[in-house]
C-alpha cells in the first residue's frame, strides 16, 4: 500500500503518561461512561504533556477511572478511550477501528457505500470521524491529539475497508495551532489521487455526489439516510415540499417514491444547483425522470411564510434546518426558531398530510424539541392525528448519555 505521507514525520507519543486527578463531578461522569475530561474538572496533573500523549485519570481511591488521549490545547483535556486500565497501542486502535467498520457492514447489502464508519466518542474514538463515499474515505480530526496515532488509524482502516483514496479534513479550531500538525493540512490526500471534482457514492441505490476536500463536514450529510427512506415510503402520488433542502436528498427519495411533484427550497444557489445535478444523476430511474421538480432559492423562513400567505399546501412538508444551537446559551433562541418553523410548516401541510420536522442541535435534547414542536403545531390551529419520533441510524450510534443529537418528528395532521 502506498501513502502520500511519510509517517516518520509525525510526532511520537511520549512514553510517560500524564497522571490526572479530577473533581467529584468528573469522577461521577467517568463512572457513568462519559467520554471526556473537561479542563475545568482537573484538580491536578503530573506534568504538561503534548497533544496525543496518554492521560490516565485516577479516582479518589487511586484506581484508574479513565485512560485516553491528552490535549492541552482545548477545553476537553482528555478524550477517554477506556474506562479501565488497558494497553493503548497500535493493536488497540486497529481493533477498535475494525469493530466500528464491522458494525456498518450490513449497509453494503442495502446498496449503500456512503456512510459513517467511525462516529467519534460513540465508537470509543473521541474526536475522530471517518466517513466513506464509495472508494474514498474521509478522516476528520477534531483534536490534534490524534496526530501521533494517525498511522495506526489509517492502517486499521486499510485492513477493514476496501478503498483507493483517503482524504484528511481538520476541524477549524486545530488548524489554528499548526505547530502541532506536523505539516498536515485540511483537504490533504493521504492516499491515492486527488478527485477530479465530486466523488459518486450510493445510498439505498440512489447516486449522490460528495465534495470530500471542500464540502461541509466531510462532504455530505449522511445521518438522515433512514429518514430519507421513510419519506420515500409515504410519497407516492403526493405533493412534497423540502425546506432547507441542501443538495436535495429528501427531494430525490420522494421523487423515487412516486411523488406527484417536488419543491425544494434553500438559500444557497450552490445547493439548488447540486439538487438539480442529483436529479440528473438519477434520471435513469423512471419515477425520478417523470417527477416535476421546482427549485426555490431564498431564505427558508421568508419563502415558507410567503407560500403560506398564498394558501399553498403540500401533502408532505419536510423541514430539516442546520443546527440552531451549538451551546446551551443558544437553546432559547433555537426553540423559538423551531417553533416558528413548526407553526408555518403546519399551515403549509394539507389536511391529512405529514409535517416532518428535524433537529441536529445537540444542546436541544429530544424531550425539549418534541414538546416544543407539538406545542407549536397546536398554536397554528392544526391538530395532530398521531406522531412518531425517530433518531439515529446504525452508522451514527449513541453509546453514552449526551451522545445523541439527531431528532425527527413525523406529525400526521388533521
Question: What's the short version?
Answer:
The chain is an alpha/beta fold. It has helices spanning about 25-30, 90-105, 150-160, 170-175, 225-235, 250-255, 270-280, 285-290, 300-310, 330-345, 365-380; strands spanning about 20, 35-40, 40-45, 55-60, 65-70, 75-80, 115-120, 130-135, 135-140, 165-170, 190, 200-205, 205-210, 240-245, 260-265, 295, 315-320, 350-360, 385-390, 405-414.
Query: How many individual β-strands?
Result: 20
Strand order of the largest sheet: 16-15-14-17-18-20-19
Structural class: alpha/beta
Please, what is the CATH homologous superfamily of the largest domain? Vaccinia Virus protein VP39
**What is the CATH architecture term of the largest domain?**
3-Layer(aba) Sandwich
Alpha-carbon distance between the two ends: 59 Å
**Unreliable runs:** none
Note the main sheet: 7 strands, mixed
- Using the coordinates above, name the CATH class of the largest domain: Alpha Beta
**Fold-level CATH name of the largest domain:** Rossmann fold
Could you report the average pLDDT, rounded to the nearest whole number? 96
Give the CA-based shape.
globular
Query: Which strand-content bin applies to the residues?
Result: 25-35%
Helix content: 25-40%
Radius of gyration: 23 Å
User: How many discrete structural domains?
Assistant: 3
